[in-house]
Here is the input.
Amino acid sequence: MKKMLYIGNVGKAQSYSFYRSAAAAARELGIEFHIAFNCVDRTKSNVKRMESDLGIYFHQIDFERNPLHFANIRAYKQLIALMKAYDFDFIHCNTPVGGLCGRLTARRCGIKKVIYQAHGFHFYKGAPLINWLLYYPVEKLLARCTDVLIAINKEDFALAQVKMRLRNNGAVYYVPGVGIDLSDPPETDRAEVRKSLGLPEDAFVLVSVGELNKNKNNAVIVEAVKKLDDSVHYALCGTGPEEQKLKALAETLGLSGRVHFLGYRDDVKTILRASDIFVSMSYREGLSRSVMEAMSMGLPCVVSDIRGNRDLLSHQSAQCVPIDADALSRAVSELRGDQDLLMAYGEANRKAVRKFGMESVVERLKQIYRSLL
Here is the structure.
C-alpha cells in the first residue's frame, strides 16, 4: 500500500476541517494516510478518536507557528526521524512552517514526490515590502524541491504560475480551499441559542469566527459596533493572544454588554444560524474557511476587501469593504435597513459556496495524488 505524510502546523485533535478532504482523497485511492502536526490537546482519547474517525495515523511534531521559533529546529529533527521510520511515497505539506520543514526534510531523506499547499502567500499585491524581502526568496528557493504547488485563491494561483519554477517542470494547481461541510446542523430554537450565549433575543447580531490575533483585526469591528445603535451586538467565537486587549477596548468604548467573547466553540454553525451578519476585517487570508461556513448557513457577509475574500464573494462584491470602522458600520447599516437585500445576499452566498464544498475539493486532490502515483 502506498503511504503519504500530510504535514500541518499547530491545531486541536478535533479540528478535522483542515485535513479531512486530504484524508478522504487518500482513503478513496487506497493510500495510507499519516498526519504530522503539533496537537495542542493530545490526550490519548482525543488522538484515538481522531485516528478512528478518519482512519489515519497521527504523529506529534512540535511545530511553532513562528518560522523563526527555536522549537522548529526540534520539529525539523522529529520530521527526519519520522521519514526515516516510514517509507513514504510522497508528502503533502501545508503552511509556511510545515512547508519549510517538510520540504527540507523531504530533500534530506530522499522523498521523491513533494506537494506544497500555500494557504495564502505572505507576499501578495499590497503586502508590506518586508514580506516580499523575507518570504518571496525562500518560496522561490523551496519551489526547486517541490513537484506540485497548490494555491487556494486565484491571485496566488496566477502569481505561482508566473513566479515559481518547480522541480522537473512540476505543476501548479488551483484547489478552492480545504473543503467545507455543507450540511446543516440540527434544528435549534434561535431564541434559546441566543439566551444560552447571553445575547438578547431582539438584538441584531454580528458574528466572527477565528483566532483572536493581530491579523484577524477584530478591534476594527469593535470600533464599528460603537458607531452603530445599541441594539447591535457582536459575538466573537475564538480565543487568542489579542483577547485581553479586545476586552479592554470593549470596556473603554462602553461596549462590555454588547461585545460577547464566546471562546473556542465546536457548535459554530448553530451560532451562525442564530446571528444576522458575519463580519471579518482580516488583513490577510488565503481562503477563509469561516467566511465559507457563514455563506453555507445563508448569512450575508461584510468582510475586508482582500484576496481570498474576493474569490468567495465575487458574486456580491458589495459585501467586500475597505478595512475601516466607518466603511464596516455603513455596510452593516445599509444591509440592516433592507431586509430584502439581507435575505438576497444570504441566499446568493448559500448557492455560491457550493463549489467550495468537501466533495469538490476531494475530487481535485484525488486527481493530484493520482498524478504523483
Notes: The chain has a mean pLDDT of 92. The longest helix spans residues 71-85. Residues 190-355 form a domain with the Rossmann fold fold (CATH 3.40.50.2000).
